[in-house]
Write a structure and sequence with these properties.
The chain is mainly alpha-helical. The protein has 1 helix and no strands.
Length: 76
C-alpha cells in the first residue's frame, strides 16, 4: 500500500505556505505604497471625442531596485 504523508510534513508545508503568503502580501503592499499619482484628474466632458497630451519621464532611482514589472496600456 502507498505510504501516507506524515502529519509533521503537512504541518510544515502549511506553515511554509502561510509564511510565503504573508511575505508576498507585505512585498506587494510596500511596492504599491511607493506609487504616486501626478497631476489633477480631468473632468469628464459631454463630447464624444477628446484629445490630450501624455508625458512619461522615467527617472533612475536613488537606490538600486531589485524588482521587475510588466506594464500594459490599452487605449480604445
Amino acid at each position: 500500500m502507498v505510504d501516507d504523508i506524515s502529519n509533521k510534513t503537512i504541518v510544515v508545508l502549511v506553515i511554509l505556505t502561510v509564511v510565503i503568503s504573508i511575505l508576498g502580501t507585505l512585498t506587494v503592499l510596500s511596492e504599491t505604497s511607493n506609487i504616486k499619482a501626478v497631476g489633477q484628474p480631468s473632468a469628464m466632458s459631454k463630447s464624444s471625442s477628446s484629445s490630450g497630451r501624455v508625458s512619461l519621464t522615467i527617472k533612475e532611482p536613488d537606490v538600486p531596485v531589485r524588482s521587475a514589472g510588466y506594464v500594459t496600456l490599452e487605449v480604445r
